């Protein structure tokens, strides 16, 4: 597996107990979360622990998150402990009206990445995984859209993209836009940053809700994928909830032009929190491939299958990060369905 570098937030999800609305919920359990953190841990459980640049506060929740990442095999090289309180995300009960996540607490510690502190050595090859030939290969770089809601997070994300592009790193971007984190007077700047990051990434992942919230497109399905491709990436992956996922790629993609769809897997769902992040981890574990290896013509389809299998396993239990399956679990799940 090629080296992978993930950057973005780690925070605490408050997952509700039984109840149809927030008023009816008797209590919450705190769980580690944050989309990039979930992806990083998902990759680690699939056998490819990434380098992970993130920030956690100096409070008790920050200590809990740092310990959790270490327990999951994430190297602490780029895990920053900073002054301030960790952001909390309140998860709404399934079926409740309103947004799935509501964020509470200061945002500076969690999202205020320092653009001058970008770990460029992890992107330029100095700290990258060795290829089979013994040389350093530029890592695959994965980013999330929530950091773009903070002015310093925007600047840092844009710096990562510029550095990664110059170093020849493949870049994937999960739009994952959260407009409720953006003040009204910053909405245009945040939306512009999302558009620019989409344009400069190779692989873009999204749902139609994410893209509509960022003001990029109101299309759905394959039409949405093609709207995104028109902005610049070579591959657009659209998650479709219970209907699986689809991907469209251009001639510029390493796996060539393709339009593929996988309908997903029918399982008994317990909690969908983090399912999209599990899908992303599964997809990237396949697309990143071996350093220097040319992806096969079925790479994109196989990546969708693995992504959907990883997501299906994740929704069988409660919580985002804690529900990420192991590589052995995914392989067994797929073997049962061959």
TrEMBL record:
Q: What is this protein called?
A: PfkB domain protein
Q: Does the keyword Transport apply?
A: no
What InterPro entries does the record point to?
Carboh/pur_kinase_PfkB_CS, PfkB_Carbo_kinase, PfkB_dom, Ribokinase-like
The segment(s) forming the Carbohydrate kinase PfkB domain are: 2-326
Q: Which family does it belong to?
A: Belongs to the carbohydrate kinase PfkB family.
Q: Which PROSITE patterns match?
A: PFKB_KINASES_1
Q: Where is the composition biased (Low complexity)?
A: 128-139
| Coiled-coil intervals | none
The GO terms this record gives for MF are: ATP binding; kinase activity
- Where does the record place the region Disordered? 117-139
- Key words of the record: ATP-binding, Kinase, Nucleotide-binding, Transferase
Source domain of life is Archaea
Keyword Transferase carried by entry: yes
């Amino acid at each position: 597996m090629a080296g992978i570098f993930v950057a973005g937030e780690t925070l605490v999800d408050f997952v509700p107990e039984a109840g149809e609305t927030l008023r009816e919920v008797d209590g919450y359990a705190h769980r580690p979360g944050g989309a990039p953190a979930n992806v990083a841990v998902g990759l680690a459980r699939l056998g490819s622990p990434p380098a992970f640049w993130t920030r956690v506060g100096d409070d008790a929740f920050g200590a809990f998150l740092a310990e959790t990442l270490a327990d999951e095999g994430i190297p602490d090289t780029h895990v920053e402990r900073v002054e301030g309180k960790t952001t909390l995300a309140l998860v709404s009960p399934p079926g409740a009206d309103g947004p799935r996540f509501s964020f509470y607490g200061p945002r500076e510690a969690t999202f205020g990445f320092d653009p001058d502190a970008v770990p460029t050595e992890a992107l330029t090859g100095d700290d990258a995984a060795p290829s089979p030939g013994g040389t350093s290969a530029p890592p695959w770089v994965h980013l999330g859209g929530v950091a773009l809601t903070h002015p310093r997070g925007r600047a840092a994300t844009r710096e990562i993209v510029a550095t990664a592009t110059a170093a020849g790193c493949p870049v994937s971007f999960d739009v994952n836009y959260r407009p409720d984190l953006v003040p009204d007077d910053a909405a245009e700047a945040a939306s512009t940053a999302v558009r620019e990051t989409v344009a400069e990434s190779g692989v873009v992942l999204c749902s139609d809700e994410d893209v509509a919230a960022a003001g990029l497109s109101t299309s759905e399905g394959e039409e949405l994928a093609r709207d995104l491709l028109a902005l610049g990436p070579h591959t657009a992956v659209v998650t479709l909830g219970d209907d699986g996922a689809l991907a469209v790629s251009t001639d510029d993609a390493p796996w060539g032009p393709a339009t593929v769809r996988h309908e997903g897997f029918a399982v008994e769902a317990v909690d969908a929190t983090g399912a999209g992040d599990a899908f992303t981890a599964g997809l990237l574990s396949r697309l990143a491939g071996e350093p220097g290896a040319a992806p096969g013509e079925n790479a994109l389809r196989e990546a969708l299958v693995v992504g959907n299998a990883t997501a299906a396993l994740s929704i069988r239990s409660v919580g985002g990060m804690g529900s990420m399956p192991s590589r052995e679990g995914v392989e067994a799940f797929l073997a049962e369905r061959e």
